[in-house]
Specification:
254 residues; Beta Polymerase, domain 2
Length: 254
């Protein structure tokens, strides 16, 4: 049995158990699509799971859970089609756009009226658009400001020998640098184990600097590597802010 046949067998077993668990809901399956490392034979590990998405006839309910079948963890998302559409539209406006990514890379096994295929095409088209130019000047300026603010906090914590606050700030700035750099470069935010590959396709210099931070020892060396990474991101955001600066914008109330 190849991996796809095994996967279909697991899905059939799961659906039977799920329907038996909810007999009062009269579950009707209208669509099935999959994601997850379990589908990639080259990336299967002991922690690989199967992300299973089921489209059901609308009964006013959605289901989210984990269930194990034949030793495989099935991470399931069960919604009516209308809910998937709503989640997709909301995800397009979210920083990580998780559902957009899921739909764009979905492996569709069942699709009533080709609704899932249309959503998949819309997701791929959306991700293919360059959105960096849509970042307003206000956001670009504030991103540069906050990076420098984090750097000042890290320096202060180091000088005060406050290891807890230093470590906390280091985690915050590294996550922030990834998020704003990916936003600027139109790189999708995905799970950490896949993020390096996404970034390296557009900018392997960022990856190189980020890994030097991870490899640096605690203290002065780590601070210097964080600063180099931060300066690289700021450079990509338009360069350092002047010592004195001001933003004027409209207000959001009448």
């Amino acid at each position: 049995m190849d991996n796809l046949d095994k996967t279909k067998d697991l899905i059939d077993k799961f659906i039977k158990v799920f329907k038996d668990k909810h007999p009062q809901d009269d579950i009707e399956i209208e669509g099935i699509f999959l994601t997850g490392s379990f589908l990639n034979s080259k990336k299967i590990s002991k922690n690989s799971d199967l992300d299973l998405f089921l489209v059901i006839k609308n009964i006013g309910k959605r289901f989210r859970g984990v269930f194990h079948v034949d030793g495989v963890e099935i991470d399931y998302f069960i919604n009516p089609f209308e809910q998937f559409v709503d989640d997709f539209e909301k995800a397009k406006k979210a920083p990580k756009k998780t559902m957009v990514h899921i739909l764009a890379g979905a492996q569709i096994l069942q699709d009533k009226d080709n609704g899932l295929e249309r959503l998949k095409n819309q997701a791929q088209e959306f991700l293919g658009q360059e959105v960096a130019g849509m970042i307003p000047d206000f956001a670009m300026t504030m991103n540069r400001y906050f990076v420098n603010d984090y750097l000042k906090d890290i320096e202060d914590c180091y000088e005060d020998k406050d290891v807890f606050a230093w470590q906390y700030n280091e985690s915050l700035i590294l996550n922030y640098l990834i998020e704003i750099f990916c936003q600027q470069k139109s790189i999708l935010l995905v799970k950490p184990k896949y993020q390096k590959e996404k970034i390296a396709k557009k900018d392997d210099r960022f990856v190189e600097l980020y890994e030097k931070v991870a490899q640096a020892s605690f203290g002065k060396e780590k601070n210097e590597q964080i600063k180099k990474l931060a300066e690289y991101v700021i450079e990509n955001l338009g360069g350092q802010l002047p010592e004195d600066w001001e933003i004027v914008s409209g207000i959001s109330v009448g």
